[in-house]
Amino acid sequence: MPLLAVLAVVLCTAMVLVVWSVMGGFLGMLLDTGRLLVGDVEITRPVSGMPYYEDLIERLESDPEILAATATVEGPALLGVPDGRTLMVKVIGVDGPGYDAVTGFGDTLWWKHLDKPVKEDTNGEDLRLHLPEGFERAGLTLTEIDPITGDPVPAAVVGIEASGLSVRQKGGWYQSPYWEGMGVTARPNENGDGWIASAGDKQYPIGRVPHLFDDSITLSMLPVSDRGVAIDVQARKIPVANEFRTELYEVDQNIVLAPIGLVQEMLRLNRAVRVSENFDGGTQVGADGEETFGEPVIIGEEPARATSVLVKGAAGVSDVRVKEISEAVYAEFAKAHPLEVPPPSGVRIDRWDERPSVAHLIGAVKTETSLVLALFGFISLTAVFLVFAIFWAMVSEKTKDIGILRSVGASRSGVGMIFISYGLVIGLVGAVLGVSLAFVIVHNINPIHEWIGQVTGRYVWDPSVYYFTVIPNQVVAWQAALILVGGVVFSVLGSIVPAAKAANMDPVRALRFE
Amino acid sequence: MPTRDSPIVEARSVSRTYRLGRVNVPVLRDLTLSVQAGEWLAILGASGSGKSTLLHLLGGLDRPDRDKANRDAGVYFHGKPLAKKSRRELDRHRARDFGFVFQFYHLLPELTALQNVTVAAMVRYGIGYPGKSRQVREQAVDLLECFGLASRMGHRPAELSGGERQRVAIARALVNNPKVLLADEPTGNLDRATGQGILDTISDLHRDRKQTIVMVTHDPHVAERADRALRLVDGVLGQDPEESVPMRPVLQG
Predict the structure, then answer these.
(1) Least CB-CB distance to B100: which of A401, A407, A412?
(2) Cβ-based contacts of B88 with chain A (< 8 Å)
(3) Global pTM?
(4) By three-state DSSP, how is residue B198 classified?
(5) Which residues contact A369 (CB under 8 A, 6 or more apart)?
(6) Which pLDDT tens digit goes with each residue over A164-195?
(7) ipTM surpassing 0.85, yes or no?
């Protein structure tokens, strides 16, 4: 019976700690990766954008507490992938190195040389092992060298889950779906101008790998006038320089990065001249009877615009402080360009976790975590009742022994303490075992999840629902400690009433008990 | 014969009533009794005569009814009323001054014979026990050896015979060197020969250690072994005529 009580405590503590670790880890991952592509603070004016953003960036970067700032232009787009499918995505136009300085985007580039295979990749199947050093450079600058002209041309960096042409393998690396099930691997040839595919013992030189980063995509975007009228669809076919992976499924699946100049051009947010509206458009006949073509009268210049400016604080500067600085700088900036830039009330200045999409996500996960935790915590109260029921039965069973102890002079409190310390030991043993069990489960949760998926055919952790492609597998020490203490306290609580029953037992009756 | 100075245990006009549902059942009525130091007193009574209750009252395991008319009523130990002791003092008193022996041995089934003996000392000394454990252990071993249980010390009660169990129980009652040994039908669950052995053991204690003993029994032959026998009938003590003891046939059970 005491073993049953221990088992109950083990299961309850393990359950709560596993849930807490996974959900809490999930939230932690969300908070970590949520700022990956956004920096600390975002100043936004969607669709029509802000002109003179270079000046705003200069003003921001002159503050010693600001590490860097960069402009982005974003808008919805249709993505045409090489196998003929068309997908809805969000295109963000960025200045590669500047964007990297603010968001650390370079670290998320997927296709780069790996020295060692990842732990699960025992056969060296990960394509990254065969990539040359510095492969990701093109991704960082968002340019590719045109093989004919030798000039750099704009290129895109696509979220790795977006195209469907990079398929996540169980070990965590990506492969082309064309190879799936064929046992084909590929690596660059010695000249670096082609690839060698190997299947079994045979090797085939191939011109290109049917892989997204060595191919082109088509982006179609819809520029909109400042009155909200669609102008005309802009489409560009551009090569893919690399793919990125933040691990945040929603981002990896939905975002394409392209050079800011290209996106500004497609959205008609680039620098343009303003011409007189009185221009009649026709030709003029001079005094000498000669016709001259009409030149539009240039009456001004429309500066390029950015829909967002992302700001990154210097090391040790909180994002709250960065937001304050950004607000102050923007106010000055608006004063310096009266009537030309949106007033401070016309832009959103959000901390990364205040951005509507992220805030919504974080709020949902926080709610979910506390809900699930409350639910499981409540279920765990059953441990109290189990210990209670088991101890109650034990007290009844030991009635005569209690009488014997009382007859040799044991006090009521002494008898009660026997049962309470018994509860303490059961709680301690159960909670320690339970927390250890939780450690084992949480650390192996991904293989366990994989195994359950294989056996039952159902994968509980759907990345499109839970945003991440791997399940968090870390146990937080203070949470483990709290659960441990909780398990012990609950067990002692459960033993108190039976202990009181034992203590208050009439020794004479207890002795007569059969 | 014991000296007739102040008694070690006394019951003065003690009554004890149990409530059974709505009915009050008087078990002992206005009972007065004194036990001298070094005396072996037998209380003879039929089943249900209240003799176990009397023993429990004397040993402080139970308290008598409150008698508002007679404030002196109650159990006295060395002339001091037990009624004035707090619960905790009573517990300590029970651990230090009394040793109980029961008809059904009442050993703890999970403990060995030796542990069953030392547990009484453990209860008595509480957290002070570790300091005394060697001494207690030696004494327990001596007692068990003295009772012929040298080879049975590591056995659990289930592995012992009835007589062996009862001797373990007596050793437990003696390990704290009590002033009074209270025995409740110590031979009641044993066959005649084994019972005689137990009585011999008790008799030796009485003779060699001058142990004060109060023993209740339904068996006149057992009562004969004591210095003095009193008859308890329906909660009232008879007048101590020793010759009257065998005259009334006592029914078993």
Answers:
(1) A407
(2) 411
(3) 0.66
(4) helix
(5) A20, A23, A24, A26, A27
(6) 777 777 667 787 766 655 566 666 666 666 66
(7) no
